[in-house]
Amino acid sequence: MTSADFLAQEKIWFDKPRYDEAERRFYEGMNGSPQPTKQDAGANSILQDIARARENIQKSLAGQQQQQSSSAADQGELVSRIKGLELENQSLNKVVENLRAALSKLERRVSILEKSPAAVTPAPAPSVPYTNGTTVQQKTSAPVKKVEEEEDDDDDIDLFGSDDEDEEAEKLKEQRLKEYAERKAKKPTIIAKSSILLDVKPWDDETDMVKLEECVRSVQVDGLLWGMSKLVPVGYGIKKLQISCVVEDDKVGTDLLEEEITKFEDYIQSVDVAAFNKI
Q1: Which residues, in sequence order, are bridge partners of residue 156?
Q2: Least crowded by CB within 10 Å, which of 44, 109, 187, 247?
Q3: Burial class (CB in 10 A: 0-12, 13-18, 19+), 7
Q4: pLDDT in tens, 29-64
Q5: Which pTM was predicted?
């Protein structure tokens, strides 16, 4: 009896693990709490890896599409700029051509004018000065007469004339000079005037400012006219007198005013010129 026949006659359950596994799954299915096996867990991890790979592939494809679209937009903008520059270049070329044509025409005109004989311009008429400063141009003589008429006119000229005309001219000149001097004397002379603003400062806050202003206005000089005045705070209760006046420049100056005002030493400490304007 061989070993194979012996095993065939033995009652051994070689597939018991398979049946045990099937029974376990059956009861687990009945209880509703199936536990994943190692094979199921491995399959799930593989599926997750595949899903992540697909997601990464989709993201990379989307990024490539965005790059391609952005590059296409940049290329379109670049093409439009190039077209605009070409149009500007064409317009500039036209302008340059027009300028060259105008310059060539101008050069031809200048060359023609240089070749043509210069026109003879008549000499300006001499001016006769008057005594009042004005000048009057003499009328030009009539066109040149014929030679025969000139000779006849020359025959009528008196080469030995008298001096009466010179005397009359001298008398006329003296009369006009006299009239000019009279008109100049009658014109009113312009008097130069100035507007001055003075700052008059007292010694302290106990100084009588009313009396100080009376002292200032008591200064009376030919060509001096006092104007408005006001008290301006300086500090520590002290106020200064700010007074305006109009003076004739030829008669009154700032030095004279300061000298006359500072004579009132009991009330006035100093005098300053705050503003000086010509009228």
Answers
A1: none
A2: 187
A3: exposed
A4: 777 655 555 555 556 677 777 878 888 888 888 887
A5: 0.35
